[in-house]
UniProtKB/TrEMBL annotation:
<keyword id="KW-0143">Chaperone</keyword>
<dbReference type="GO" id="GO:0000785">
    <property type="term" value="C:chromatin"/>
</dbReference>
<dbReference type="GO" id="GO:0006335">
    <property type="term" value="P:DNA replication-dependent chromatin assembly"/>
</dbReference>
<protein>
    <submittedName>
        <fullName>Anti-silencing function protein 1</fullName>
    </submittedName>
</protein>
<dbReference type="GO" id="GO:0042393">
    <property type="term" value="F:histone binding"/>
</dbReference>
<keyword id="KW-0539">Nucleus</keyword>
<dbReference type="Pfam" id="PF04729">
    <property type="entry name" value="ASF1_hist_chap"/>
</dbReference>
<dbReference type="InterPro" id="IPR036747">
    <property type="entry name" value="ASF1-like_sf"/>
</dbReference>
<dbReference type="InterPro" id="IPR006818">
    <property type="entry name" value="ASF1-like"/>
</dbReference>
<comment type="similarity">
    <text>Belongs to the ASF1 family.</text>
</comment>
<keyword id="KW-0805">Transcription regulation</keyword>
<keyword id="KW-0804">Transcription</keyword>
<dbReference type="GO" id="GO:0005634">
    <property type="term" value="C:nucleus"/>
</dbReference>
């Protein structure tokens, strides 16, 4: 059965911002039929690439009842708890994951790189032993968004065969690009890789070689704001 929900766009508001500021995501989605259950949205911050024990669920929200049509809302969540992040991983690049579930089944997760750095050159060149939170700013890198979709049962009595494989809204299930900054889903190309679980997506995004490249790119873009 084709997906009943299509994520049209996710805009990151107030970006860049202070490290301690809340995350604000403006989410636009469309529903092709009235939904019997609420949509469960969750925002997760990857505290360290080394272990999922440092992952933090920043917040979750139920949206419903949801009727057929286009909808938009702002999902706001407090920043991560610094005490739960390894000190060596506080500054640098990590991943922010937004996922959505229906009837306790995750059908999409969206990943962004997040660059956290000091705004002052002296602190960037000579990082303090103890992080100075008020001097840190973060930037969500919206130029490389990764989306993973999963086939689910949209109807309670739907059999297993109806939910296996196939395409979702014309895009093969897997990792693809998400339209951002107001662009619509039309004319977006699909990157049809195998669909990994949520935490594995973070692991893929944080592969060491890619992390080094992205850290450099994000840092250049980050400091161009000042």
């Amino acid at each position: 059965m084709a997906s009943l929900v299509n994520i049209c766009s996710v805009n990151v508001l107030d970006n860049p911002s202070k490290f301690t500021d809340p995350f604000k995501l403006e989410i636009t989605f469309e529903v092709f039929e009235n939904l019997a259950e609420d949509l469960d949205w969750e925002l997760l911050y990857v505290g360290s690439a080394e272990s999922e024990k440092y992952d933090q669920v920043l917040d979750s929200v139920l949206v419903g009842p949801v009727v057929e049509g286009r909808h938009k809302f702002v999902f706001q969540a407090d920043g991560p708890d610094v005490s739960k992040i390894p000190q060596d991983d506080l500054v640098g690049v990590t991943v922010l994951l937004l996922k959505c579930s229906y009837m306790e089944q995750e059908f999409i997760n969206i990943g962004w790189f997040v660059a956290t750095e000091y705004t002052e050159l002296e602190l960037r060149e000579n990082p303090p032993t103890t992080p100075i939170l008020e001097k840190l700013e973060r930037k969500v890198c919206t130029d490389d968004v990764r989306v993973t979709t999963f086939p689910i049962k949209w109807v309670k009595n739907q059999d297993d065969e109806a939910s296996d494989g196939g395409e979702v809204d014309g895009l093969t299930d897997g990792v693809r690009e998400l339209p951002v900054d107001g662009r619509t889903a039309e004319n977006q190309s699909a990157d049809a890789e195998s669909a990994p679980p949520v935490r594995n997506l973070a692991g893929i995004l944080l592969q060491k070689v890619k992390l080094i490249v992205k850290a450099d790119m994000c840092a250049k873009n980050f400091f161009s704001f000042f």
